[in-house]
Specification:
The structure is a homodimer. With 234 residues, chain A is mainly α. The first copy, chain A, has helices at residues 2-7, 13-18, 27-33, 54-85, 88-93, 95-114, 128-138, 141-153, 202-205, 209-216, 222-233, and strands at 159-166, 171-178, 189-195. In chain A, strands 2-1-3 form a three-stranded antiparallel beta sheet. The radius of gyration of chain A is 19 Å and the shape is globular. In chain A, 53% of the residues lie in helices and 10% in strands. In chain A, strand 1 (159-166) and strand 2 form a beta hairpin. The longest helix of chain A is centred in the N-terminal third of the chain and has 32 residues, at 54-85. Chain A has eleven helices and three strands, in the order ααααααααβββααα. The A-B interface holds A 59, 63-64, 67, 96, 100, 156-159, 178-180, 197-199, 202-203, 206-207 and B 57, 61-62, 65, 94, 98, 154-157, 176-178, 195-197, 200-201, 204-205.
């Protein structure tokens, strides 16, 4: 199905080969062969201090992201089982869990790479093509950040702010998504995502989401965003 | 319009509708604005179930922001209504629903909780107890079902015990974000906030632990009053 195949790129070839067969899925075989897994952070939990506390980074990674991974795997396993039986009702009923948890996994996996300690380039302004594109689309880096922060602060409830690439229009675009909806549902290619679920900032910033958004630019890893941009354009 | 349904405290907009008198900002603020209700107890009164720190920020920051932003949106709405600017009236509905819903929901929530010294956590009795047993089997079964559904809310939202006037039955429902229960047609009796701000400082990611604990400060007397009013 659409959700399973587009969201979970980590799946092995065996998943594709499996569709259409009636062999039952063994729980252990799915877990060992095709399950999503929690990626390591590219830095220590405390590396983004004082912008994002180590406590937040640890809980966010080990509890929240881990839960998306676990629950995606559970849902996906049930999905493969239902698919093998041709049980479309169950396949459809699992889409909510697959979208939410699969989206959570995709989003957070991008997020960790979008951040870096200042010693590794975090906060350093973009250069080259990406910088050129930002200036051309938004006027300046500052103007982009102001617009992004305002739009993202205004997300009602839980969600994400994104800088994405519109392949058809060949332009950068700012978008927001609710809950764990991945940016891909808008058709944009994700370049930079900022999590504004309260768990991403509350222990440190409390209700002050705008303060978190103002600060986080100091650890945005523009080199990673530039890599994603280059890949999206190619 | 939705604004009227949500906020019963406002004076009739109808007096303005159709006339072209501009709405003066100060006059709305002084006459018809919603205000933050006081908590019926001190910030620390629900400890150790809900910390004083959470209660204070939840009330003074989150609920206050819904009040402020509802008033701002509603004022713009009245202004647009006076000018018959329907595009603007429609564009404001998101802000009115979100902030108005946030005000309605939290206003109910504070009354749904009480310190144990004032009845918090004491099991319901009488009609309400009977209705819970009839619909769910037992209070325990109700709480487990409620918690299961509410813990599973994806993102921010609320778990509700509501009354279905049509079917004359209790019902459990969940709503996303600050959608008020009224959009489901149910009458709100008991709401539990599961936005992360409601528990995170104390319970971190453990929403199920928060839901398990909160029953110790649920003010069933208030829920019973709401039930009696809903049935009448």
């Amino acid at each position: 199905m659409i959700a399973a195949r587009t969201i979970g790129k980590v799946f092995s070839q065996q998943h594709i080969a499996f569709a259409g067969r009636r062999a039952p899925v063994d729980a252990v075989s799915f877990a060992t062969k095709a399950a999503a897994s929690l990626p390591d952070l590219p830095y220590d939990y405390g590396a983004l201090e004082p912008i994002i506390s180590a406590e937040i980074m640890k809980i966010h990674h080990q509890k929240h992201h881990q839960a998306y991974v676990n629950n995606f795997n559970i849902a996906q396993e049930k999905y493969l089982d239902a698919e093998a039986k041709g049980d479309i009702s169950t396949m459809v009923s699992l889409q909510g869990a697959i979208k939410f948890n699969g989206g959570g996994h995709v989003n957070h996996s991008i997020f960790w790479t979008n951040l870096a300690p200042p010693t590794c380039g975090g906060g350093e302004a973009p250069t080259g093509d990406l910088s050129h594109a930002i200036n051309s689309e938004f006027g300046s880096l500052q103007a982009f950040q102001d617009k992004f922060s305002a739009v993202t602060a205004a997300v009602q409830g839980s969600g994400w702010g994104w800088l994405g690439y519109d392949k058809a229009a060949k332009k950068l675009a700012i978008a927001t998504c609710a809950n764990q909806d991945p940016l891909s549902i808008t058709g944009l290619v994700p370049l930079l995502g900022i999590d504004v679920w309260e768990h991403a900032y509350y222990l440190q910033y409390k209700n002050m989401r705008p303060d978190y958004l103002k600060a986080i630019w100091k650890v945005v890893n523009w080199r990673n965003v530039a890599e994603r941009y280059a890949a999206a354009k190619s």
